[in-house]
């Protein structure tokens, strides 16, 4: 039996190169050898209610699903669905809420960062990792391929599964996280001390997967490097290392070989190669995405079929959970 994979992306902001290199690309690379479920996590998008525009959220969810397909996820082989279409995600979240100590959630780095400096924080933001654990545990998931920033959440999902199994008997499979060898943490092109993020403002920060060639060129060629005029591997700054990491994620070239090749050249050469590699990957994705968005009825059919198929798996797990805890 091939291993069950589950992963997802939030339909907020603009998907960027970090989402592609950290997540989507590894999903595509291992698609054939695994039993895949890929989700557009619209319930997670509600955790920042002030950023939610109802019409836009629905459209964005579709756009993200189309990006999965355009990037090479084949809906005939892998399930692509929208989280809110399978109601068991919310039901399992409640049950897991009741077995999860508050302290586990308060310790999460992402919660602390997002809550910092805000006067009032929604419960959803604290509960975010519980919903994420429900996503994973509902499908007896064995492998969760994500970028480095999600590792702590997957470890928490493991702890939650083990705790539940101890309390109520063997119910959940304990999942493993996988992080890609390169591209697991792409940093902002304007400031390589900040992770590339969907919510960051400023045009020089991220390369959006649907950005035009001109915009992509501007962002990459404008990336912050350092004050030297040419590449000096022994004191490469965070910005230079980020560009090298992105290029490595695309080409697989070892960093020392890359450093030797660029030594003494102007940074324009390195940036030029990053631009070329990015365009080579994104051009066909953008063309296919445009086609898919032109046929929303077909896309909705694909999403509905997948929700029905994975919904049956989710219901099977929920039936076990209800029996284990004595509800339903
Ligand atoms: P999200 O939407 O923030 O990001 C989606 C995926 O992209 C990866 N990623 C990055 N990788 C490299 N460099 C970056 N700068 C970068 N930014 C984001 C993330 O690690 C992630 O893999 N909570 C999740 C969504 C989720 C989920 C799940 C994932 C909900 N339920 C269950 C796995 C399993 C999230 O917010 O991802």
Structure report:
The protein has helices spanning 17-29, 42-45, 54-70, 88-97, 102-106, 109-115, 123-137, 151-168, 213-221, 238-251, 255-262, 267-293, 296-325; strands spanning 3-9, 34-40, 79-82, 143-145, 176-178. With 328 residues, it is mainly alpha-helical. The protein folds into two domains: 4-178 and 296-325, Rossmann fold (3-Layer(aba) Sandwich); 213-289, Orthogonal Bundle (Tyrosyl-Transfer RNA Synthetase), CATH 1.10.240.10. The chain has a three-stranded parallel beta sheet with strand order 1-2-3. A two-stranded parallel ribbon has the order 4-5. The longest helix has 30 residues, at 296-325. The protein is globular. The protein starts with a strand and ends with a helix. Bound molecules: tryptophanyl-5'AMP (TYM). Tryptophanyl-5'AMP is lined by residues 6-10, 18-19, 21-23, 41, 44, 132, 135-136, 144, 146-147, 149-150, 184-186, 195-196.
Please describe the topology of this protein.
Elements: E1 3-9, H1 17-29, E2 34-40, H2 42-45, H3 54-70, E3 79-82, H4 88-97, H5 102-106, H6 109-115, H7 123-137, E4 143-145, H8 151-168, E5 176-178, H9 213-221, H10 238-251, H11 255-262, H12 267-293, H13 296-325
Parallel strand pairs: 1-2, 2-3, 4-5
Helix pairs in contact: 3-12, 4-7, 4-13, 7-8, 9-12, 10-12
Bound molecules: tryptophanyl-5'AMP.
Residues 6-10, 18-19, 21-23, 41, 44, 132, 135-136, 144, 146-147, 149-150, 184-186, 195-196 line the site of tryptophanyl-5'AMP.
